[in-house]
Amino acid sequence: DYTAVAEQTPGVRIARTTMSMTDTGQETHPEITVRVVPYVPPDVTKPYPSRGFRDAVQQQLDSYRLLTDRVTVAPPAYVGLQITVSVTVFNTYTSDGYVSAIETCLESYLDPIRGFEGDGWPFGRAVSTDELEEQLETLDVVHSIETVSLRAIGDVSVDSDGTIQINDQT
């Protein structure tokens, strides 16, 4: 498995990997893309591997790949989200406190390395307003949720219910 080989690259810290294959019409010559996300501190919102990082992983993969396989290392593609939230909060919190709590909650949930269920937002997983509402309901500061809306920035599709569909390489 190329993702396991990539994760064993000496000298780099990889947080996550995914692999996709493109059908070239020739069964013996698949085009394989391994996307790598470097391990970074929590304040880095879009971990992006440097050219040297990708080159090191490429060397590692080249030493293990089959001669007929074409394997390429690529960075992750990120989808920008604009999230608008309207909530009623308990009076015991200042506006700075509840805004910060809401932003932190959503950013933590969508984090590419530590989000979702603790292993990072899954590659290609759709995001919906319903699940963001569920996250907001866990906050002590939120009394009730009026609306949550999502807008994607980039080349993605949006279902009629507001769910943003993301391809498996993102």
List the helices and strands and how they pair.
Elements lengths: L1 H6 L6 E9 L8 E8 L12 H14 L5 E5 L5 E10 L5 H16 L18 H9 L4 E12 L3 E2 L5 E2 L5
Summarize the structure.
The chain is built from 4 helices and 7 strands, in the order αββαββααβββ.
**SSE-based structural type:** alpha+beta
Strand percent estimate:
25-35%
Mean pLDDT: 87
Form type:
elongated
Poorly predicted residue ranges: none
| Cα separation of the termini | 20 Å
Would you give an account of this structure?
The chain is of the alpha+beta class and 170 residues long. The chain is 26% helix and 28% strand. The chain contains four helices and seven strands. The strands form three sheets. The chain has a three-stranded mixed sheet. A two-stranded antiparallel ribbon has the order 4-5. A two-stranded antiparallel ribbon has the order 6-7. The longest helix is centred in the middle third of the chain and has 16 residues, at 95-110. The radius of gyration is 19 Å and the shape is elongated. The two termini are 20 Å apart.
Overview features:
4 helices; alpha+beta; 170 residues; elongated; two-stranded antiparallel sheet
